[in-house]
Amino acid sequence: MNSIKLNKQIAEELEKISEAAGYMWQKGWIESNGGNLSADITHLLQEQEIDFKNLEIIKTQLPAGAENLIVLVTGKGCRLRELAKNPEKAACIIATNSNGDGYSIIWNGRNGMKPTSELASHLKIHVSNRQQKNGKSTVLHAHPPGLIALSHYSGADADKIPQMLWRMMPEVRIYLPKGILFLSYRTPGSSELADITAESLLNCDVAVWKKHGAVASGKDIIEAFDLIDVAEKGAQIYLSCLKSGIEPEGLSDAEMKDLEKFIA
Ligand code: 13P
Ligand code: ZN
Known about the structure:
L-fuculose-1-phosphate Aldolase; single chain; alpha+beta; binds zinc ion; 16% strand; elongated; nine-stranded mixed sheet; binds 1,3-dihydroxyacetonephosphate
């Protein structure tokens, strides 16, 4: 059931989502139904009245501040790789209600499509972005294998991994100025995971869900993809060194200091 017309700007948003999905599939980050993404498109639909009276309301407690949002989001159990060719197979648009206790599917709700099981994380990050007025309107979660592999390490020096990733090549430090944060394991889809993720993204560019995946937010989905891509590149270089028997040196303190000056 479609209660809205897709305008040009939403069509463009879908095109970027398809593009990012193609990249993620090529990179092996979105096996089966792995990964999910969303875009807060509330501002793109303001001119269209949504007639909630004739829509089914799916009752669920929404995060505080997530009332009256319109969000393009991938479907629960959907294959993200299908977004690349046919977004209708894997995405829908939801409108949250003004009471904060439910949402309706206003585009592509047929065939039992429901939003991702990580909806709480997506909505909490969108609410946080709005509060921060940081211009970010998209959220991407994927399963990049290098970052996940590193997140399985819990030795005494595990807290040094984010610094080490910064030191793998200058661009990791330049492109991810707030760095990468490894969060302790939480159940997928839980509100605890959503809380800690939204909070952490205030202080990092990429949040890694231990033994699960990575999350980033960007002004568009390509920017969110780039953030995870750069973090994953650092992880792949680190792991390649270890696999080759090389203890990676990493940029030295002096080289990092010099880089800081260059960035400033
Ligand atoms: P969904 O199919 O519900 O989006 O779940 C995929 C996933 O990666 C959960 O973390
Ligand atoms: Zn996941």
